[in-house]
Amino acid sequence: MAVQTPIYLDNHATTRCDPRVVEAMLPYFTTHFGNAASRTHVFGRIAEEAVDKARAQLARAIGATTDKEIVLTSGATESDNLAIKGAAHMYRERGDHLITVCTEHKAVLDAHHALEREGFRVTFLPVGADGLVDLALLAAAMTDQTILVSVMAVNNEIGVVQPLQQIGKLCKDRGVLFFCDAAQAIGKVPIDVEAMHIDLLAFTAHKMYGPKGVGALWVRRKSPRVRLEPLFHGGGHERGLRSGTLAVALIVAFGAAAELAARELPEESSRVLALRQRLWDGLRNNLTHVHLNGDWSARAPGNLNVSFAYVEGESLLMGINDIAVSSGSACTSASLEPSYVLKALGVDDELAHTSIRFGIGRFNTEQEIDYTIARVTEVVTRLRDMSPLWEMVQEGVDLKTVNWVGH
Amino acid sequence: MAYSDKVLDHYNAPRNVGALPKDDPNVGTGVVGAPECGDVMKLQIRVGADGVIEEARFKTFGCGSAIASSSLATEWVKGKTLEQAATIRNTDIVQELNLPPIKIHCSVLAEDAIRAALADYKAKQAATAG
Hints:
The structure holds 2 protein chains of 2 kinds.
Chain A: E1 7-8, H1 19-25, H2 42-61, E2 70-73, H3 76-90, E3 97-101, H4 106-117, E4 121-125, H5 135-141, E5 146-150, H6 164-174, E6 177-181, E7 200-204, E8 215-219, H7 248-286, E9 290-292, E10 303-308, H8 313-319, E11 323-324, E12 326-327, H9 340-344, H10 349-352, E13 355-359, H11 366-385, H12 388-394
Chain B: H1 5-12, E1 27-34, E2 39-47, E3 53-61, H2 64-77, H3 82-85, H4 90-97, H5 104-129
Antiparallel strand pairs in B: 1-2, 2-3
Helix pairs in contact in B: 1-2, 2-5, 4-5
């Protein structure tokens, strides 16, 4: 049977809603449309019950002991901002120093930059060539002024999984709050806020087969009780931390997606891992000069970030236009700068320009992977045949010794 | 990004891909750009005894617009004298391929490649004459 195109292999950007999630959500647009804050009548109470059920599903998916700690938001970007700015503003009397990592998502990095403009001091930790945080560097960066450490669970570009448990332990021992952006992690790798000593955890529905527009911040309530200054002021929803009428249908979907993610994680992660292995083996069998970006073993199952040397990323995307993937090439970004994440790993700009991120997910099949291997092989081969760099390398020229006339 | 039909056409069916013998005194070779900037173009011309460019070849490492710009450049220089080829401007390429502002540097690189190939040819001729 011919494979259906276009093929979606960009599951780090967003995921398709699971039909079971959509089914759970739909009645809350029409039949059960009440405002969850309207407790005086049955419409409101039905909505409130649905939201409470979703909270419990969300709490269970992250190992939280109580559903009272879930603050519902519009997505991970809002959760990131609420956690970082909320904690910084609440605890500024205790200290003015924050620590994060230079490969974090832009929402985390830019929230820190905003705090720097307010006078906070921020340490942006480097990562090793494997993309992982060095625990000794983290420990050394902590001072008695440090109030928050923010480290993501799974990197959105290279998929590496940070050593959360060790980071959490370190933070706990030093009395520093630990915030983790787990947008790319839920349903992909096990997350347990208790075992990992996490104090604040951000996640979002659309990365786990739920709809766009809803996310959550889990806020620890005891040992320690974490307090935050809200970003939004208004009706006092979500224990005053996030005013605004709850998006009941989206929250119901988020809860359903979280329950599926937690339940299907063991089976799904091994299936996705097998697909990734098939893709990696296929590409390496067919092509030479293929480089993996980021650590191989500490990596979320669905991620494969590779550089196809001597073939510029955007031109490759153009050639495989029936397969949806993304590139760390400068040409695909508005800034004309190659990926800051790859740069932080010490990947040469030259190789960063040739990087492709494959994001395998719940709905991908072996046939799609095989088709992708064949198409990528065909296009990389064609583009290498017209690449002056490939020609030079075949002639034995060391590209590092060439005196380039750059722009 | 939406590519113009002409960019897509050159990308899918590039004209004059390949190489000419770079040691041939009648061949001029220009290599411009840098791998760390994400684009490198190699453009070659073979000039006949009458001073007219008989053949042109290119190889490009770069985005689709860079490939299209160099492919178009090889088409345009063919049949032109050295003086005529030197008058090709990047703005002509931008217009022909309908390049968006963010891709203008691709056309600049193509113009530079033409000039570099012409300069290389002239330097070789001067060396042989001398």
